[in-house]
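Encode chain A's predicted structure.
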Amino acid sequence: MTIRAARSGLSLAEVVVVMILLGLVGAAIGSAILNQQRFHRDASALLHARQGVRDAMEVLSTDIRGASSLDTIRLMADSALELFAAVGASVACRTTSGSVITLAAESAVGNTLTSFLVAPDTGDLALVFRNTGDVPGGRWERHRIAGFAARADNPGCLSSGSAPGDAFAVALHAQPDPPVPPGTPVRFVRRGRYSLYRSSDGRWYLGYRRCNALGASVCGSIQPLSGPYRSYSTDQTRTGFLFEYFDSQGDRVEGGAAMSVARIDITAHSESSRAGSRAGGRSLPQFATASVAIRNRGP
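Encoded structure for chain A:
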């Protein structure tokens, strides 16, 4: 009588089938992980593009609304805007010398007599309000800044919640005539240019340049603010960043009629830095518009 031993293990065919099944399962899991990673990368790039557009709109809206009433717009183009934007405001509390004006102190308890977005410097202008009879409603007198610093010796200039050193003094290049009396409003403005430009990486960005306060426009190196955007185009429906100018009647302003501009419309077409998997490999555009009125219009 012959007794056969029981078979142990798997046959070659069974091993091959198992390996094929494991490979298919592994490929499906790997593909799902890669798709998920691609989705998160595309979503992050999309959110970054949206945030960039929102930040650019917010910065531009703030500068346009608070633009100086004196020489407001110096360049108005379809892809560039140069203007004097407000960087601070204060009130003179006393005149310490012929060309030095002491300003009211900032306060930690809500004093609004003095407020600065950034500290003014010698590249900015001080606008001193003159309530005179020659211009109805008064006028703003323009002065170049020679120096700006905190001051500790400011009797009568410190408000509740402020400490010595919280007040400021601004030195002007020329002595105001007549002298600036206490209680005079003083505004500080900075000349800058926003423009769509092509960077060294071949993409288009919204950039900012700080320009000289007086005279012909001379601007420094450009700093990117947000992007990338679509490339510049003369077709206003396709260009990456568009500025449009209108007067108080809603009519379009062309050429050099800058002082008649009452509203600026901004249109941005941003694109994510990655190709969207849901867009057939094409970059995903982000579209935004804003209509901003200039508040500080006047002589």
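The longest helix spans residues 12-65.
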